[in-house]
């Protein structure tokens, strides 16, 4: 086996055997923060893959509400958005009976293991985290300690289940590398070489980085003040059509080659969205629309987006009107998650020497 981070040879992962005997490739943990409207980028970059992975892996999908409060959140809105994320998981096709859907704060073992990892991780590791530098900016003295330390909680989210794989985007690779560093140091510190798995990334390459519909050089974001910069998962067909129609383009016909597209960020973004929604390679989409007018392409993209996203948005809206059902899924998921996490935390406590009289 080859280490996916360094390329170096490594021993076979002993944690995989239990899954292989069940015809599975391993156990996945992945989470989404309940902060703001879910949009197309969240769907293509993460949530769509949750449903696609569930037949090959044992999956735990988490609404990471504890991560959300590293910056202040309105309590009522946080609760509502937690239900919205859970609704999105279900609407995208995750089977809540087969897989585990829960919110992080319902499983206290996450925070309990995070404290252990706060004592394993080094200050230098944390201070090098790119996302902390970006979010804290120049006012680091006034940000919360949670914003600095949350990568240790992220590592705990993964390792409290001894997850063997985590789906990550390019912007999360550094956090997974930190998780691996923490696992290795814990295993070495306590002479337990195989206690925690060295979790492997599942990276979905092309067309997962979706850019703003108003500026193809900026990532699609929940926080952008213009709602026309993104397609929300709850948008209806008319809203989707209007946003694509108003998406920024340039005056030239559609690009003839990938190289040409890459020089035109707005065109490149829309081609990437089409390719992702159609499950095609981007070069095939470029060839299909080469030289045609942008208006033709936007019509085709609108039809595709409405067909793919419309049913998800409708199902999300239905689920969000039934909070009792969503809460039941989260409650059941938390119970099942704790059944996995609690014995692992007990193992950790015994390993570090905490007396369990």
UniProtKB/TrEMBL annotation:
InterPro entries: aa-tRNA-synth_I_CS, aa-tRNA-synth_Ic, Trp-tRNA-ligase, Trp-tRNA-ligase_bac-type, Trp-tRNA_synthetase. It is found in: Cytoplasm. L-tryptophan binds at residue 157. Its EC number is 6.1.1.2. The keyword Protein transport does not apply. A motif ('KMSKS' region) lies at residues 219-223. GO terms for molecular function: tryptophan-tRNA ligase activity. The keyword Metal-binding does not apply. ATP binds at residues 33-35, 41-42, 169-171, 210, 219-223. Keywords: Aminoacyl-tRNA synthetase, ATP-binding, Cytoplasm, Ligase, Nucleotide-binding, Protein biosynthesis. A motif ('HIGH' region) lies at residues 34-42. It catalyses: tRNA(Trp) + L-tryptophan + ATP = L-tryptophyl-tRNA(Trp) + AMP + diphosphate + H(+). Belongs to the class-I aminoacyl-tRNA synthetase family. Homodimer. This is Tryptophan--tRNA ligase. It comes from Reyranella humidisoli.
């Amino acid at each position: 086996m080859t280490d996916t981070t360094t390329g170096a040879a490594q021993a076979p992962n002993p944690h995989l055997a239990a899954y292989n005997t069940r015809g599975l490739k391993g156990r996945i943990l992945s989470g989404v923060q309940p902060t703001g409207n879910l949009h197309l980028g969240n769907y293509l970059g993460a949530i769509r893959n949750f449903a696609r992975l569930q037949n090959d892996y044992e999956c735990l999908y988490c609404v990471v509400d504890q991560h959300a409060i590293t910056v202040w959140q309105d309590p009522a809105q946080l609760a509502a958005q937690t239900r919205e994320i859970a609704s999105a998981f279900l609407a995208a096709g995750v089977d809540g009976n087969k897989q585990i859907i829960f919110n992080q704060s319902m499983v206290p073992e996450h925070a309990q293991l995070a404290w252990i990892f706060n004592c394993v991780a080094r200050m230098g590791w944390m201070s090098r985290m790119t996302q902390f530098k970006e979010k804290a900016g120049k006012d680091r003295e006034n940000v919360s300690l949670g914003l600095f330390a949350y990568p240790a909680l992220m590592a705990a989210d993964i390792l409290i289940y001894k997850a063997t794989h985590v789906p990550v985007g390019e912007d999360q690779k550094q956090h997974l590398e930190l998780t691996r560093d923490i696992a290795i140091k814990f295993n070495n510190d306590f002479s337990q070489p195989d206690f925690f798995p060295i979790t492997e990334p599942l990276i979905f390459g092309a067309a997962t980085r979706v850019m703003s519909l108003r500026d193809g050089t900026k990532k699609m974001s929940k926080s952008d003040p213009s709602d026309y910069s993104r397609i929300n998962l709850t948008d209806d067909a008319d809203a989707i059509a209007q946003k694509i129609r108003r998406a920024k383009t340039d005056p030239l016909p559609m690009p003839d080659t990938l190289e040409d597209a890459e020089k035109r960020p707005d065109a490149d973004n829309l081609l990437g969205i089409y390719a992702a929604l159609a499950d095609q390679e981007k070069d095939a989409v470029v060839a299909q629309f080469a030289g045609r007018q942008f208006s033709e392409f936007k019509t085709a993209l609108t039809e595709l987006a409405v067909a793919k996203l419309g049913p998800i948005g409708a199902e999300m809206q239905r689920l969000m009107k039934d909070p009792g059902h969503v809460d039941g899924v989260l409650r059941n998921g938390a119970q099942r998650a704790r059944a996995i996490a609690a014995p692992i935390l007990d193992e950790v406590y015994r390993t570090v020497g905490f007396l369990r009289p």
